[in-house]
Design goal:
Number of helices: 9
CATH class of the largest domain: Alpha Beta
Largest sheet: 5 strands, mixed
Structural class: alpha/beta
Radius of gyration: 19 Å
Number of domains: 2
Helix content: 25-40%
Distance between the termini: 21 Å
Strand content: 15-25%
Shape: globular
CATH superfamily of the largest domain: ATPase, nucleotide binding domain
CATH architecture of the largest domain: 2-Layer Sandwich
Length: about 300
């Protein structure tokens, strides 16, 4: 019999895709692939899942993907990629390709909603009712959790495409092909490459242009605090976790911009409210595992087994 805690998870990102086999937060096996074309990348993931299904077996599958995604189960294009800056991926049937091979309960959600779920389950969000997870990397995304449930509506949160107040003197036009200077067009890896002329990890911390980036991040944090009132905001992704000085500089702007209006926002240290994910770069793949666990829990609840 397949152990009920054995879960397969897929984290599909704009740069790389990870497949994991796990029990709880313990990853038993993993495979990594570059995100190239849908046929190539999804084909490699399907092959991995089929191998695990034959050898080890798994009780559920969680799929955590970059977006935007159609997450309405009643829609004819449920589980497909909508219009995305990632070339060739608009219209890709992610759920159809991966869910068909699972032969078990499965669930799909955005990678950031899933990462928030993992942090709520095993990381920095334990014991909280509301949580926001931001990722700053190839793109900028945000997942929201209320009562342990990812937020969905007409679509899902598209935090990265907010257009917020720009810093005085900042003439960078942004890099988003849809909106120019939305948050993704200002803070993503490609945006930093366009602004600085080199990759983010190669830019010196004392480069004065980081002040514009810190301002933009502060605008996003402030908007989230005002609109969603989360108990904690976690900032992950290669840029979020790789450039910790950005958070320190951004927080100074946040405090100044809010001007004492929100009583739960401390005036000095941000650690209790805005911090790095406790799971680090494991939040993504474990988010997929958490989705798999969630679909099993829901199924058992409906059957009256809890």
């Amino acid at each position: 019999m397949v152990p009920m805690k054995t879960i397969a998870g897929i984290e599909l990102g704009g740069t790389k895709a990870l497949a994991v086999l796990a029990r709880g937060s313990e990853i038993l096996a993993s495979a990594r692939f570059a995100t190239t074309t849908p046929n190539e990348t999804l084909g490699a993931l399907v092959d991995t899942l089929e191998g695990w299904k034959r050898r080890e077996g798994f009780a559920a599958l969680g799929i955590a993907s970059f977006g935007p995604l159609r997450l309405d189960p009643g829609a004819t294009d449920f589980g497909t990629m909508l219009a995305t800056p990632k070339a060739g991926w608009s219209g890709a049937d992610i759920a159809g390709a991966l869910g068909a091979v699972a032969d078990c309960p499965w669930r799909i959600d955005t990678d950031v909603n899933a990462a928030a779920l993992a942090e709520w389950r095993w990381g920095a969000g334990q014991g909280l009712d509301s949580l926001c997870y931001l990722t700053l990397g190839t793109g900028v995304g945000g997942g929201l959790l209320l009562g342990g449930r990812p937020v969905h509506g007409a679509l899902h949160p598209e935090i990265g495409h907010l257009r917020l107040r720009r810093a005085n003197g900042d003439e960078f036009s942004g890099s988003c092909p849809f909106h120019g200077d939305c948050i993704e067009g200002l803070l993503s890896g490609p945006a930093l490459q366009a602004r600085f002329g080199r990759a983010g990890e190669e830019i010196r911390a004392d480069d004065p242009r980081w002040s514009f980036v810190a301002h933009d991040l502060a605008q996003l944090i402030g908007a989230l605090l005002l609109v969603t009132s989360p108990q904690k905001i976690l900032i992950g992704g290669g840029i979020g976790m790789g450039r910790s000085f950005l958070l320190e500089r951004a927080w100074q702007h946040v405090v100044a911009d809010l001007a004492g209006y929100l009583p739960f926002v401390p005036g000095d240290a941000a650690e209790d409210l805005v911090t790095l994910p406790a799971l680090g770069d494991r939040a993504g793949p474990l988010g997929a595992v958490a989705l798999g666990e969630a679909v099993l829990i829901d199924a058992r609840t409906k059957e009256g087994k809890f």
